[in-house]
Design a protein that fits this description.
Blueprint (H helix, E strand, L loop, with lengths): L1 H19 L16 H12 L5 H58 L3 H22 L17 H23 L29 H4 L4 H18 L1
Length: 232
């Protein structure tokens, strides 16, 4: 009898231990999802169609105005992100190409001995630095207009020129306000998948071949090798 009672106690204790072993929060229900800005705006607009006390109406109207401002910011950031993701690869390549040419010309400038050549190099450097400025500070909300594709198409040339003027005006305004203008052609795209892009893989010019940029030379050769393997 005593032995049987001991066995029952062991079973009961085991059940209690088993119940306690359940981790905290197992039976907790997931938190309800917060309503979106769009739904909050609709809800307040429906409320404002009702007959409300003046103080309640004023409070809801102020809340509605704040929510609409948040929605405008959200929509603007969404557009900027969409444009950034679409254009960042071509910006990355074009910035690399321009920087390589600048480094090559600066190296040539250090070894140049002729005045006429110095003037020519300085002129080329000035133009390349304007191109670099174009890529670095291209407006976020504009579709990127490439510097190396489109040739002499009059519409594309006109758009480039208009955007160059806009960028210069933005830089002047930023300098006047004592602020640094945010770069949009950033250097933080090291994880980009370059294997499916034809930029840099065709039409390699002598200034690229001679550029003193070991990292870019190696990466270009790697991309060429990768493309050959993919084609085979």
């Amino acid at each position: 009898m005593a032995h049987g009672g001991y066995s029952k106690r062991r079973v009961a204790e085991g059940n209690r231990v088993g119940r306690r072993s359940k981790g905290p929060g197992v039976d907790k229900k997931p938190k309800p999802k917060a309503p979106s800005l769009k739904n909050q705006i609709r809800s307040i607009e429906r409320m404002l169609r009702k007959d409300l006390p003046p103080e309640v109406r004023e409070a809801q109207e102020n809340k509605l105005e704040g929510l609409k401002k948040q929605q405008e910011i959200h929509n603007r950031l969404a557009v900027e992100r969409k444009i950034f993701l679409r254009d960042r690869k071509i910006k990355f390549f074009e910035r690399r190409k321009i920087e390589r040419r600048i480094r090559r010309l600066e190296k040539l400038q250090r070894t140049s001995s002729g005045q006429a050549q110095d003037v020519d190099i300085a002129d080329q450097l000035s133009k390349l630095k304007e191109d670099l400025e174009y890529v670095r500070f291209f407006p976020k909300t504009e579709k990127y207009v490439s510097l190396f594709t489109g040739g002499d198409d009059s519409d594309i040339v006109d758009r480039r020129n208009r955007l160059r003027k806009q960028i210069k005006a933005n830089l002047i305004a930023a300098a006047a306000s004592g602020k640094d203008m945010e770069e949009t052609g950033s250097e933080d795209d090291g994880l980009l998948d370059l294997s499916d892009d034809d930029f840099f893989l065709t039409g390699t010019s002598s200034d690229e071949a001679d550029a003193d940029d070991e990292w870019t030379d190696k990466s270009t050769r790697y991309m060429l090798h990768l493309r050959v393997e993919l084609l085979n």
